[in-house]
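Lay summary. Proteins are chains of building blocks that fold into shapes, and those shapes determine what they do. In this project we predict the shape from the chain. Here is one chain we studied, written as its sequence of building blocks.
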Amino acid sequence: MERYRATIFASALVGLTLCAAAATAADNHYEGKTIRVLVSSSPGGGTDTTARLVSRFLPKFIPGNPKTIVQNMPGGGGTVVNNYFTRRAKPDGLTLLQDSSSALSTYVRGGKRVRYNPREYAYLGSIMRGGSILMVRKDARKRLTDPKAKPVVVGDSDGIRTWVAMTVWGSKYLGWNNRWIFGYAGTGEMVLALRQGEIEMWGTANAKLIRDLQRDGVVDPLVLLTDERRRDFPDIPTFEELLGDKKPAGISWQAYKVWAGPSDVDKYVLAPKGTPDNVMKILRGAWGRMVEDPKFKAEATKFFGEAWRTRDGPATAKLVLEVTDASKEVKDFLFNIRKEHGLPTGKKKKK
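And here is the predicted shape, written in a compact code that computers can read:
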């Protein structure tokens, strides 16, 4: 009996030793290391702001307190950085990607250049800012519903942002008089173009930018992308409310939801496919503590407004699966409606 008890005690001691060793290894994983945070946009926009906020606070809650560096890699609605991340990022938790809903729309749109699959990533979590608000310059608003007037110019970086869907369906079902130009490097350039009258319609979820443009008398906020009104802009209707009885049914509305739907994910942080469970546990745990930190909350409210909220990694991954699930009929509709309005289709033209 004593020998049996000694054996049990020894086994328990070995188990405790192994657990302690595993915990120590986890605690030391990031000690003396640097996490590189890749960003799918140029400096100055909402995605970049989110990346720099997260990279400031996240390491404080990671054992070992690693350093962080932020590297912007814009282009192709997220295609450039996602292709690089898929091909080059090691699944060791030392390279993360700060991305946005545009990359999900790009994935659904497809094309030969899209060589990544957001459905396979390991998600830390996401930050939702309350939904994009479409604005129109005050001096152009009357022309929006006048088919004989000069078209109201919609400006975007790549013509595939989620809020652009409102301008396309607005043109098709509300008779909006629009034309589209794209190719702007980032948010800063588009805000300047809007102020100068180079573009006349633009969308963002950034509360500060919207307030600044309102305060300076440049724009009228017109309509909201998401299904529910923002509590910080309660008077702005949702696009579905604006459509009213002109809201289309069937494939058309399904296609709209596929284009606009990724906005519900908004800004998200992820690790490569195959990142070990123990590393993801560290990162997701740090994310959970970060978003509850009072200092982080205060900074986030300053940048994003009062409507922001968060999702954890598993909830973000589930939503990504939902918004990137599109039938062939829906994809064909999206291709045709983009082509009809002169927007990127994602398919290479035949020579």
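What the prediction tells us: The mean pLDDT is 90.
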